[in-house]
């Protein structure tokens, strides 16, 4: 999940379903989210620069 969709809970259903299916979950967000407990990886970072840096590495 990316950005604020978990901070305001609209994306939480996707995290919950993925976790139930055993699908790894990575969350990139500034601050905690409702999905952090189910995440395989959490990264507390600004989304724009983080995705830009990741894309430049690929």
* Main sheet summary: 2 strands, parallel
Q: Strand portion, in percent?
A: 5-15%
The strands making up the biggest β-sheet line up spatially as 1-2
Secondary structure: helix percent = 25-40%
Tally of contiguous helical segments: 2
Number of E-state strands: 2
Low-confidence segments: none
**Could you state the order of secondary-structure elements as H and E?**
HEEH
Straight-line distance between termini: 19 Å
How confident overall, as mean pLDDT? 88
User: Helix- and strand-based class?
Assistant: alpha+beta
Global shape: globular
Radius of gyration from the alpha-carbon trace, in angstroms: 11 Å
Please give a structural write-up.
The protein has 58 residues and is α+β, with helices and mostly antiparallel strands. Helices cover 34% and strands 14% of the residues. The chain is built from two helices and two strands; from the N terminus they run H-E-E-H. The protein has helices at 12-20, 47-57; strands at residues 26-29, 41-44. A two-stranded parallel sheet has the order 1-2. The longest helix is centred in the C-terminal third of the chain and has 11 residues, at 47-57. The chain is globular, with a radius of gyration of 11 Å.
């Amino acid at each position: 999940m990316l950005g604020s969709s978990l901070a305001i809970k609209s994306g939480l259903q996707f995290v919950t379903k993925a976790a139930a299916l055993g699908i790894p979950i990575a969350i990139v967000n500034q601050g905690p989210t409702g999905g952090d407990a189910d995440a395989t990886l959490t990264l507390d970072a600004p989304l724009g620069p983080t995705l830009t840096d990741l894309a430049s590495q690929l």
